[in-house]
Amino acid sequence: MANILITNDDGVYSDGLIALYNSLRKIGNITVVAPDRPRSASGHSITLHKPLRVDKVRLANGEYGYATNGTPSDCVSLAILDLAGGPLDLVVSGINRGPNLGYDLTYSGTVSAAMEGAVYGITSFAISVTAYDDDLDFSLAGRFARYLGEILLQHKLPRSVLLNVNVPYVSADRLGGIEITRQGKRHYDGRLEKRTDPMGRTYYWLGGDLPVDVLEEGTDVKAVADDKISVTPIHLDLTADFLLEQLTEWDITDFPSK
Length: 258
Ligand code: MN
What we know:
Layout: E1 2-7, H1 15-24, E2 28-35, E3 54-58, E4 64-68, H2 72-83, E5 90-97, H3 109-119, E6 124-129, H4 139-154, E7 161-167, E8 178-180, E9 185-188, E10 192-196, E11 202-206, E12 211-214, H5 220-225, E13 229-235, H6 241-248
Parallel strand pairs: 1-2, 1-5, 2-4, 5-6, 6-7, 8-13
Antiparallel strand pairs: 3-4, 7-13, 9-12, 10-11
C-alpha cells in the first residue's frame, strides 16, 4: 500500500480533512499531520522562532493523527522528517473549505502545504471546494481526490510541480466535467476597510469584498464558474521567463558598483 500524508490549513478537526481521510484510506496507509487550529491564509510560512509541538489526537472518524502548533508547511516537514515513519508516496492537502484560485495561491495554506511536498520531491496536490457553508458535503471532492490519487501514484509528478484542484460545490449530476487549466486571475477589490475603534483609534480590516474573477477560457476561475472540476499544474519556479531577455536590455547589469 502507498504511504499518504494528509494535511490542511483548516485544522486537524475540520470535516474536510476527515472526508479526505475516509476517501484516501482505500488506496493507502494514511498519516495525518495538521495544524491544531485553523491556519487559513497562512501562506508558505514556516516556524523558525519557537519550538514545534506535536500531540497525538483522536480524529472525528476514530483514527489517530498528529496535531501541531506549526503551519501547514511545517506539518509536511514534520511528517517527512519524522512522523510518517518512512518514505511518503503522496501528499494531499485539504479538503479546503473555500476555493483557491488565481492569485489566491500564494496566500493559501492549503496550496502551500502541497508546495512543501513538492519541495521535498514528493508527488503532491491540494484540493478545495468552492463553498464555505457550515455543513459542506465533501463527497464529490472526496471521490475525486481518491480517483486523482490513484492516478498520481502511477504517474509521479515531475520534481518541483504540484497540482491544485478546485471542486465546484454542485451535486455530482450537475458537474460540468473536469478540465486541466492554467492559473487564472482572481483579485480582491476594495478589500481594505478603514474603521474607528471605541477608543477613537483607526484600525483596518482586510478581505471584506467578494473576489473579482477574470473569466478567461482555460483558467481555473473559468472552469469552476462553469461548474467543472479544475486541475492546475503549478510550478515552484516562479521565474517570468518571458522577461529574462528583455531585462538584460535595460542595462540593469551595467550598475556602476565601483
Ligand atoms: Mn482553509
